TrEMBL record, chains A, B, C, D:
Residues annotated as transmembrane: 12-30, 50-68, 80-100, 120-140, 167-194
Predominant place of localization: membrane
Catalytic activity: K(+)(in) = K(+)(out)
Signal peptide: none
GO molecular-function terms, A-Z: potassium channel activity; proton channel activity
GO cellular component: membrane
Species per Swiss-Prot/TrEMBL record: Paraburkholderia xenovorans (strain LB400)
Membrane topology: Multi-pass membrane protein
Plastid found in the keyword field: no
Family: Belongs to the TMEM175 family.
Descriptive protein name: DUF1211 domain-containing protein
Transmembrane helix as UniProt keyword: yes
Length: 205, 205, 205, 205
């Protein structure tokens, strides 16, 4: 049903999502022998890595939901043109950049002097990614790329609204980092929890 | 026969399994020039890395069997809903986290003061992963997601029992780390050897 | 329509492209605590990493367009023989080597004494990759590997010309590094912007 | 034509091959500022990395041909059972371990005191991998796993002979490391050049 072009675009995108999500673990540093000598036992050394675990779980969840949304988005798209390939490339650039702000966040989450900036940096990346989803969807809906037939106008409007909400919400959550970083991070996560719940996958037979 | 949704979920999961299993090698550190100067020759320096090889082989084998089990599980599942996507995401989170406890284990296996804790940490990750397999399977059997038709009740019960056994066995093996870490590791591996042998792949024509 | 051989070659190539493009982020170093103590705040430390971001964005874009071109190229090829498998292997070697010259470029871009050499090194890799695209295409057009039927001679000539242009352009852009490195880098990027725009994807029904 | 089981096994294996081959570049270290201060210019610093390039090119070529051979092997196999899944897992273990002996080789190739040992270590990994190919093929030919129909006995014998030759040749090449490491490495590479040339891909319509 899908064009072969879409198939390979999805395969490539799946690859990038799968790699970006699995690379996240590389940012969690193993306690070294000298780390161990400074604390009482391995559990303390592992517990001190808590900002890394927070970063890992948050980004893993967010990239996972982004993947599911990407998947759902391309259920509606029948053909892609060069312009959409490029827009999708910027989307993937945001996704595969995410391990970096995640590592910056983990490195600074326990440091009151820098954690606000690190959370803003993390948030800006999520704003960028949300923006690219809107561009890809906009090109799918109004551009040369064609949608699958038999798609209801209601469904299209719902998706448009959802992508707009995620973009707006990411901006607001990023701004709240200046108030409280935990509030900001919970807001970012909530957007993806909501987004994961709101849209049932289109069923096919 | 499978839904297109299942196809892309399986492709994404395959990607995560394949990357997690291949990243394991990055945790084995190459002997540096200064390492070499402290021991008599390269073979000694390589031999001193034995905990890394133990960790690599154990985790490679476990992730490989997990992949085969994931594969077998989704042979029975016809459609996935959002809830199963999320459960599968937590399953993949456990799988892609495994290189970290593997590295912690390798780093501490030769250290009597910390190796018990490292083995427990490794075991807890395996308990978590076993738990997620049970949740995914439970959602497949009783949730909204639908199974493939023509599946015998006997087969379903056998799989349920197997996943329960792996979860229970992982808990017991993790507890045995306090008695003897080698016993604990052998028990973990045995669970996956048994699991790899017990279930014949469903044949299709 | 495509041979199963081409399918698996494309899947393997997609994997290598997807991994090479996602590994680029690993070359961006997280500011350490000691980096932070030397500058005023996290933003300064992050801003000092600008050569890494330039390298990341440039190489991400170039590898992404290379992927799209590889995709387009194999739309025309019906069967592959061993010779083409080997030529494609050298192509992938160039692609997966690219994170290294990217890191070298990022490391030296702010250093007037070495940045010309780093840009030439980066350019030479792009020349090598452009060369391998020409070889693969040449083997597809004149070798044992067979093209898809119904391909117009005009289309073939256009592709040949485009690959020749990219090779020639990469050589010229590499040479311009001795005049001005920014000019050289902009020329390299322009070649891939042009290449991304010039060829519409072959549509199939 | 292929069983769905084979399809996912091949996809997973392709993933591991693609990742192992792309991870090779991570072992090439970027010259640091202090490296640069010790030699006259970037080119010298890059040239000093020659053992890394030798390792990268050799292992990239070898893993690439291994992938093509794996591909060709599974063209003949119609169904896989659990035993073959396990044998294939050990094959993939060898493949994904290869970046480690490659890095060890690169680290020691310029050091007369340790390079023989490093070459033997590299060779032993190739012997192990060649062994696993023989086991997988043996299980395909005589085990429960079934071959594709319409396969000529002559073709089967040719493949058996080729896998035997690669195993024997790897053993001999590894032994020659004690005489001359370059001879040993050229012999290893030659085996894969020959292997890449000898077998035409089975054509399908």
């Amino acid at each position: 049903m899908s064009d072969s072009t879409t198939v390979r675009l999805e395969a490539f995108s799946d690859g990038v999502f799968a790699i970006a999500i699995t690379l996240l673990v590389l940012e969690i540093k193993v306690p070294s022998a000298s780390d161990l000598s400074q604390v009482s036992g391995l559990w303390h050394a592992l517990a001190e890595r808590w900002p890394s675990y927070v970063g890992f779980v948050a980004s893993f969840f967010i990239v996972g939901v982004m993947w599911a949304n990407h998947h759902a988005l391309f259920e509606y798209i029948r053909r892609v043109d060069r312009r959409m390939l490029l827009a999708n490339l910027f989307l993937l650039m945001g996704v595969s950049f995410l391990p970096y702000p995640t590592a910056v966040l983990a490195q600074n989450l326990a440091n009151p002097a820098t954690r606000t900036d690190a959370t803003v940096f993390y948030g800006v990346t999520l704003v960028f990614t949300a923006l690219t989803y809107n561009v890809v969807w906009w090109l799918g809906r109004y551009g040369q790329a064609r949608l699958e037939p038999h798609v209801h106008e209601t469904g299209l409007r719902m998706i448009t609204r959802r992508y707009n909400m995620t973009l707006l919400g990411s901006l607001v959550a990023t701004g709240f980092a200046f108030v409280n970083i935990w509030l900001s991070l919970v807001m970012h996560l909530s957007l993806y929890v909501l987004s994961a719940r709101s849209e049932p996958l289109k069923e096919r037979d």
